[in-house]
Amino acid sequence: MTPWDRLSTLAETAQGQSILDLFTQEGRAAEFSARFGDMLFDYSKTQIDTKTRAALLDLAREAGVESRRAAMFSGEKINETEGRAVLHTALRAGPEARVLVDGVDVMPGVRKTRAAMARFAEDLRSGAFMGQGGAITDVVNIGIGGSDLGPVMAVLALAPYHDGPKVHFVSNVDGAHIHDTLQHLDPTTTLVIVASKTFTTIETMTNAETARKWMATQVTDTGAQFAALSSNTEATQEWGIAQNRVFGFEDWVGGRYSLWGPIGLSIMLAVGADNFDAFLQGAAEMDAHFCTVPLHDNVPVMLALVGIWHAQIQGHASRAVLPYDQRLLRLPAYLQQLEMESNGKRVSMDGADLARDSGPIVWGEPGTNGQHAFYQLIHQGTRTVPCEFLVAAKGHEPDLAHHHALLVANCLAQSEALMRGRSLDEARSSMAAKGLAGPELERQARHRVFPGNRPSTTLIYPQLTPRTLGQIIALYEHRVFVEGIILGINSYDQWGVELGKELATKLGPVLAGETGADDKDGSTRALIEYVQSNRS
Ligand SMILES: O=P(O)(O)OC[C@H]1O[C@](O)(CO)[C@@H](O)[C@@H]1O
């Protein structure tokens, strides 16, 4: 019997297994949690028991998690469809590290770029680097996907550490985004960063061109107030950005894994090089944990196995990520790209159809806001949505500690409520206490039943510092990697984004009336006609 078969059988047995009853086993909370430093990952509020976990660990071993992990860290070209190594971990590696790609140590180059970024950041933050109108007050990062989501998420998350210029982000090609961002800024004291690995992404290049025109209205040497983050240094030069403000990286850094290097410049500008270093250090610590700790106690591995249990074995199509931290507002969006662009694939590495479901749909919002929006469905809908809670024991506002206490109480209450539920008898008693009786009591009580037994995990840490944020992001990166290995997926390509881009490029001239729409289907033709007759 393969581990997959064993897990299917275990899932059948688990049907109807009360999670709450599993806690009659003494020490379950400690036994079904994993620690990383002062961070705790609690997965005891799931139906996973000792046998299930053993089968999940066998699955990981048989899939070759340990050897694939070694292959990734040693610079093997594990992104086979693009013939590339996967070494975002090198961007955060410590001073002693040596990482070989094709026999060449890439670390001297990584360190050189990191030092150049730090020098530029310090110059800009101290006022040594200025705009035409004086010290830089605002930075606009223009990028999309991995060249935007990571930096936006991290800059928001690290608000208590901001002591640099104000950082803004423009990603959408919708002119509203750049318009609304630039309209309040002064071009003479603004730095524009064009963040694009390829430097060809249509949204980014269109926004960059618009920013250049805006800058030219008041600045004579516009190029002097631009920087570029890219692995296509030829294109950055052609675009007119001086070499000393181009921060390059190699093709072994995937877009959605790129915030640790030059793509993270906006984070460094906001919080300074020391805090950025702490962010990298946290991630490097998680890398060391991932590489050395046995699978059973390995937080990224266990997070991945819980994910596989819920998505591929129990068949739950989505998972909700629910940070009880307003500053992690964009974490769900960031994880949507990280997880869904990495593992949303229908063929395995060798091109065969995937034998099971691909990675799940990832969605979420910070608590407590989500509670007043979609938690209704999570508690009483007909579908089970495994929930992943994140919360810090302590906030950053000592005088608002009572807010934080309420926040934590809500987070803990939600996982408890999801597991415990409320029975019909309990609902009946509360309706009877309100004076209801007979059929009306019965009807009202049924609406107030919570089925419970809904699984969740909680990641809890002391405080959201730069170092902790680095740990959390690296944790999720490795989780995605492990899930991808188990599914046989190449988590590092993204062919699924190409078709839409190609068609959009062809539709441009059609919408402009330059070419016909004869090859289009009836629906698309009707939509084109609608736009053409309603835009003037
Ligand atoms: O950094 P670039 O090359 O502009 O790409 C942006 C994003 O586009 C994608 O290729 C997908 O559309 C992402 O993987 C990437 O993060």
UniProtKB/TrEMBL annotation:
InterPro entries linked to this entry = G6P_Isomerase (IPR001672), G6P_Isomerase_C (IPR023096), Phosphoglucose_isomerase_CS (IPR018189), SIS_dom_sf (IPR046348), SIS_PGI_1 (IPR035476), SIS_PGI_2 (IPR035482)
Where are the catalytic residues? E341, H372, K501
CDD domains of this UniProt entry? Answer: SIS_PGI_1, SIS_PGI_2
Would you indicate the residue range of the signal peptide? none
Give an example GO biological process: glucose 6-phosphate metabolic process
Which protein, by its recorded name, is this? Glucose-6-phosphate isomerase
Task: Tell me where in or outside the cell this protein is found.
Answer: Cytoplasm
Keyword terms, alphabetized? Cytoplasm, Gluconeogenesis, Glycolysis, Isomerase
Chemical reaction(s) catalysed: alpha-D-glucose 6-phosphate = beta-D-fructose 6-phosphate
> In which family does this protein belong, per the annotation?
Belongs to the GPI family.
* Record EC number: 5.3.1.9
What gene name is listed for this protein? pgi
Q: What class of enzyme is it?
A: isomerase
Q: What is the purpose of this protein?
A: Catalyzes the reversible isomerization of glucose-6-phosphate to fructose-6-phosphate.
Q: Name one cellular component (GO) term.
A: cytosol
Keyword Isomerase tagged: yes
The primary site where this protein sits is cytoplasm
Q: In which pathway does it act?
A: Carbohydrate biosynthesis; gluconeogenesis; Carbohydrate degradation; glycolysis; D-glyceraldehyde 3-phosphate and glycerone phosphate from D-glucose: step 2/4
